[in-house]
Write a structure and sequence with these properties.
This protein has 174 residues and is mostly helical. The chain is 45% helix and 0% strand. The chain contains 7 helices and no strands. It starts with a helix and ends in a 12-residue tail after the last helix.
Length: 174
């Protein structure tokens, strides 16, 4: 009977023995996590949670001269620098426009920057929809709704009359 039971039910696989990783492998994995900016789980080495580990610093251009200086300093011989230099040169016109409009004083409150040269008014664009539906400003919303509904009813009535939509021949029922 034991032979039957053992043949009908599959045996569980043997447990997998985990071999500990060597210290050099663990150290290289931690270094890779630090380079990528992901959490290492260590208090002193974690770039995400540690207050002592170095973190990525962000900066920005606030003048066109800074952009020109960067392009001039990028080496055309370096693989990545050459590609970055080429992209910056192709997109220079658009980047300069954005640098001119950039409110640098809002990005770094610790330093004073000149005000952006161009300030655009909020003129309606091509996708602008008038919230008052061409009624004077400060017109109450219920009034706008009532007038719009009235206009839609009159328009539907006119379409029915002109298109003879809705006129049916009905025989008089006695």
């Amino acid at each position: 009977m034991d032979a039957e039971n053992s043949s009908s039910s599959p045996r569980p696989p043997p447990p997998i023995k985990k071999t500990p990783k060597p210290a050099s492998v663990i150290a290289s994995e931690v270094q890779q996590q630090v380079r990528l900016g992901s959490c290492t789980g260590g208090q002193g080495t974690c770039p995400v949670h540690s207050s002592t580990a170095s973190k990525t610093k962000w900066s920005f251009f606030c003048t066109e001269e800074q952009l020109d200086e960067l392009i001039a300093k990028l080496s055309p011989r370096g693989v990545r620098e050459k590609e970055l230099r080429q992209i910056l040169m192709e997109e220079a016109v658009g980047i300069r426009e954005l640098v001119r409009k950039c409110p640098a004083g809002k990005l770094n409150l610790n330093k004073s920057y000149p005000e952006p040269t161009e300030k655009k008014s909020r003129a309606p664009g091509k996708n602008y929809i008038d919230p008052n539906l061409t009624y004077p400003p400060k017109t109450p919303i219920p009034t706008i709704f009532e007038l719009q509904l009235r206009d839609l009813i009159l328009e539907a009535e006119e379409k029915i009359f002109l298109g003879t939509l809705g006129s049916l021949k009905v025989e008089q029922a006695n």
